[in-house]
Design brief:
Keywords: DNA-binding, Transcription, Transcription regulation. It comes from Mesonia maritima. The protein is built from 14 helices and 8 strands. By secondary structure, the chain is of the alpha+beta class. Strands 2, 4, 5, 6, 7 and 8 form a 6-stranded antiparallel beta sheet that branches. A two-stranded parallel sheet has the order 1-3. Strand 4 and strand 5 form a beta hairpin.
């Protein structure tokens, strides 16, 4: 069962706008049942706000409750799927990194906390009084999307940016570390996550990452401990185990082959580490998820 990676142009229902898509969630579900009925990944940034409906949204093997006011943020490469208990409504939009950043050259998507760190939750719960106002802003984006007027793309990016800023202000009110730690520590954490994402298969020791950040291993451990209350090794192995989970459920390769891809010396050691971190052996995890 190989998990598909979906692209923006697979969802377009109108004349394409390069690297951007928006739709009411109910309409999105109706039009794309075959694409999104099973676990899948995206090659773009995704945001969805629910105004009605209940259910579960699983993102990288963590489950989150869907309810009115739930806003979810997904980065490229994350595995997810929906399971609804009652009909959902709201808006969903997604876009490439270039679509946003080519218009805002001095501001990057990863500066928003819901996109810059996997340690930050991918969920924002809106206060009831904020839902209607943000829904109207998303309606304005959709109206612009389906029309053909001058500077259409520029206006959409500007509207999306104001929506992201609104989400950012409410999101940071709910994250204590945004208030209690220096920008320098958060910047180191961000750069560390990028380095881990690029090197985790071959580099599993904190020393490697400290050297590339031009700081001591001791200081790196201090930064990670004070910002997210973990060790650098824990952060590295969290990324390894996440990749292991993705490969176990999305590929039909043997578990031994997967352990070799992740640069473990042998399968028994990989299985031991995986069970220690998840409570399941790799084969039990594959059976559980696929069933």
């Amino acid at each position: 069962m190989k998990i598909p990676v979906l692209k923006i142009n697979q969802f377009e229902e109108t004349e394409p706008l390069k690297d951007f898509y928006i739709n009411s969630f109910a309409n999105h579900i109706s039009l794309n049942k075959k694409l999104i009925s099973k676990p899948h990944k995206h090659n773009f940034y995704l945001c969805v706000m629910f105004t009605k409906g209940t259910g579960i949204h699983e993102i990288d093997f963590n489950s989150y409750t869907i309810k009115p006011g739930s806003v979810f943020f997904l980065r490229p490469g994350q595995t997810h799927f929906w399971k609804f208990d009652s009909p959902p409504e709201g808006f969903i939009f997604f876009h490439s990194q270039e679509f946003y950043e080519l218009k805002f050259l001095e501001h990057k998507l990863h500066e928003f906390p819901f996109y810059y760190s996997f340690q930050n939750p991918p969920l924002l719960e809106l206060p009831d009084k904020k839902i209607n106002g943000l829904y109207k802003k998303l309606e304005e984006v959709y109206t612009e999307y389906i029309k053909h007027k001058p500077f259409k793309e520029l206006k959409i990016v500007s509207l999306i940016n104001t929506i992201y800023i609104d989400f950012f202000r409410m999101y940071t009110n709910n994250i204590s570390n945004e208030k209690s730690h220096s920008p320098n520590y958060l910047k180191i954490l961000e750069r560390l996550e990028i380095l881990i994402d690029e090197n985790f298969q071959t580099e599993k020791l904190p020393k490697f990452y400290a050297q590339h950040l031009n700081i001591t291993t001791k200081h790196l451990n201090r930064v990670v401990k004070e910002t997210i209350n973990k060790t650098t090794s824990e952060l590295i192995y969290e990324r390894i185990i996440l990749e292991a989970k993705r490969l176990i459920v999305q590929d039909d390769e043997s578990l031994t082959t997967i352990s070799h891809r992740l640069e473990f010396s042998d399968y028994s050691y990989f299985s031991k580490i995986f069970k220690l971190k998840t409570g399941f052996t790799p084969i039990d995890f594959r059976k559980k998820y696929r069933n």
